[in-house]
Amino acid sequence: MQIKKLKSLFDTRWVERQAVFEDFHILYEPLLKTFDEIRSNRGWDTEAANQAHGLATNIQLRVYCSLSSVQLPLLVSPKV
Can you tell me the distance from the alpha carbon of 11 to that of 27, in angstroms, rounded to the nearest whole number? Predict the structure, then answer.
């Protein structure tokens, strides 16, 4: 299956969210590579390069924060 567009998480029912996350996981690296190409390729204008940089930074920051919020509680052992 080839994914061409991400679904909005807010437009899906809770049972469909797993598929949205799986699609995002598949597209994560290609998205970042595309943004990096736009930033480094001189054929793109400055505005496109700046937008690509902002989008890549935003995606990476949100993924990092999401993973941190999921993993952090797992690292803290409950007091007995």
Answer: 19
**40/22 Cα distance (integer angstroms):** 28
pLDDT in tens, 1-54: 576 666 665 555 666 667 777 888 888 899 899 999 999 987 899 999 999 999
pTM of the model: 0.61
Q: Which helix (H) or strand (E) segment is 29 a member of?
A: helix 17-40
For residue 50, give both structure tokens: 């700046």
Q: How far apart are CA 9 and CA 6, in angstroms?
A: 9
Residue 26 contacts by C-beta under 8 Å, 6 or more apart in sequence?
A: 3
Q: Can you read off the two tokens belonging to residue 20?
A: 């949205």
Q: Which residue has 């480094």 as its token pair?
A: 40
**Residues 6, 24 contacting (CB under 8 angstroms):** yes
